């Protein structure tokens, strides 16, 4: 353990700037009696809110506030914690913070996520729960917040721990059998139906993977880019989806020159929508840069919504331009990837006939927008699962997929006539290890550093 994990730390634990109330939080291994006496002028009853003057070094009053002492180990971090709840002005909170740093020997400013990192290191939260704390704070929709709260309660961890126990059970069995003489072990493994157990495990992992992917979608959202020729109604569609006049709309082709992005939500799934400059051989420098940016956005999008203008479908030059864009899209992407993310949508259904089977809408009247929303959710792989939802990260999906691959590897090994049990054991060990990365049982220090450094300060 690095020495820095032993230091007392302090930080402003509320959003910076002006708030009605702000909190300065201190966490330390050593007793906080000296600090409490210095700032509060009296001893504090554990886990009890005291209203009192909070004092500077010269005895002057910084603020009338609330002080709370959580003696170790019954605190957020598992260490001694002192909370000073003051009025929320930035100057007051800075003064209180400076006072704590100066009155508690060895105390330094907390790094981002360091309180939660200590909660993790002291076993108060596992890694998936600690990540849920950050996801709860950063949640951009109610559904994301609610499922982050469920992950914080341990919904994902519980699933992962259930899998872990089943894996440990199998590992112990297979490893014990390894010590048997060769003829007996095979028979033993067959009797215990290791193959059946592995098959069961694999379908359990698959079910959890499906839910974890949903949880990751709630967290990451979906990147949708509106692309197409000038004047087809991309900006109108952005405005219609967002319900606000965000992008300029005019009948002049080439109106949008720079990207305009907005986050909306559909059934709680965050959608990041980007309106782009119409794709054409631009006449001037500004538009040329705009079109280059359109292509950058297209490259990064999960869904490329290729918008067409129904009123111009029959025009030869219009068709030629659409073909050119299609070819350019194909040149930027491999066919399968393009197929999976390209969505053709036909606009101005209020002003023209709609061809059979086309996904048509009118950005002007709003007709067809609901069907588009549902199509976007379907593209994202969203399945409404009201109960049992928990927030998750791409990292969790990856770890579960690797666990699944190793369980599959073990299954392959036991399915041959004379299974090599040492290979089965090795696959199971790797599966266990991959699974353990989710809750932080087997996590490298650099992964932990990476995760906690993305928290806000004071968390
Ligand atoms: N004022 C304040 N509000 C806050 C926090 C905080 O640190 N301070 N939290 C910060 O994120 C969240 C609450 N999280 C907390 C988690 C555990 C404990 C705690 O004292 N745990 C003890 C006792 C548990 C019990 O009494 O049942 C323990 O785990 O032993 C406190 C806050 C949200 N609201
Ligand atoms: N009739 C009809 N006109 C529409 C519809 N959507 C957009 N328009 C009109 O089409 C013209 C172009 O709309 P924009 O939204 O600016 O088109 P754009 O694709 O963003 O164009 P650029 O920014 O130039 O690439 C405007 O005159 C809109 O009023 C629609 O659903 N029906
Ligand atoms: Mg536009």
From TrEMBL:
Binding site for GTP: 231-236, 250-256, 275-278, 347-350, 362-364
Keyword terms of this UniProt record: Cytoplasm, GTP-binding, Hydrolase, Magnesium, Metal-binding, Nucleotide-binding, Potassium, tRNA processing
Family affiliation: Belongs to the TRAFAC class TrmE-Era-EngA-EngB-Septin-like GTPase superfamily. TrmE GTPase family.
Principal location listed in the UniProt entry: cytoplasm
Organism per entry: Inhella inkyongensis
Residue span, TrmE-type G domain: 221-381
Transmembrane segments: none
Cofactor list: K(+)
EC number: 3.6.-.-
Cellular localisation: Cytoplasm
Biological role: Exhibits a very high intrinsic GTPase hydrolysis rate. Involved in the addition of a carboxymethylaminomethyl (cmnm) group at the wobble position (U34) of certain tRNAs, forming tRNA-cmnm(5)s(2)U34.
UniProt cross-references to PROSITE patterns, sorted A to Z: G_TRME (PS51709)
Gene Ontology annotations of biological process type: tRNA methylation; tRNA wobble uridine modification
Gene name, Swiss-Prot/TrEMBL: mnmE
HAMAP family: GTPase_MnmE
A GO-annotated cellular component: cytosol
Top enzyme category: hydrolase
This protein's name: tRNA modification GTPase MnmE
Co-factor remark: Binds 1 potassium ion per subunit.
Residues reported in the UniProt entry to bind Mg(2+): 235, 256
UniProt xrefs under CDD domains: trmE, TrmE_N
NCBIfam families: mnmE_trmE_thdF, PRK05291.1-3, small_GTP
MF GO annotations: GTP binding; GTPase activity; metal ion binding
Domain of life of the organism encoding this protein: Bacteria
Binding site for (6S)-5-formyl-5,6,7,8-tetrahydrofolate: 25, 83, 124, 459
Positions bound to K(+): 231, 250, 252, 255
